[in-house]
Amino acid sequence: MPYVEEIAKRLKDYFNKEGIKAQVIAVGKLGKPEVAEKVLQDGFADFIMLGRPLLADPYWPKKVYEGRIREINHCIGDQEGCIQSFILGGHPCCAINPYTGFEDCKKIERAHTVKKLLS
To answer: Both ends of the chain: CA-CA distance in Å?
Structure first.
């Protein structure tokens, strides 16, 4: 079991065992909808939280809701763009989404023409 799921499961089990009425939010490496869904379906957590996946694709929730899973631009976890820019006190950026933080004034569009880059 991956780390995030294990921690969420242990916490949920502890709360249940101790009679603590609390809900668990799982976070970390849950950017693939099937992984996030499994965490919820298996009862490991009550909610999931997304951070960097939403920098890569702010429309992630809408695409999942509408069943457009194949259209998601997935976070690659490169750390340099999103995390390093915060450490240096800058604006968040993303190797996948060059318009991170500017989605309200710039639009991400797919190319209309497919080009062959390598022969």
So the answer is: 41
Put simply, whether the predicted model's pTM sits higher than 0.90 gets the answer: no
| Helix runs in 1-119, H state only | 3-18, 33-41, 52-56, 60-65, 82-87
Q: What are the two backbone dihedrals, phi and then psi, of residue 53, each rounded to the nearest 5 degrees?
A: -60, -30
C-beta of residue 66 within 8 angstroms of C-beta of residue 33: no
Report residue 49 as tokens: 């939280």
Q: What range defines the domain where residue 18 resides? A: 3-76
Side-chain-side CA neighbours of 36 within 13 Å: the count stands at 19
Q: Is 47 helix (H, G, I), strand (E, B) or coil?
A: strand
For residue 98, is it within any domain? no
Q: What is the pLDDT of residues 55-102, one digit of tens each?
A: 999 999 999 999 999 999 999 988 777 777 778 887 888 888 888 888
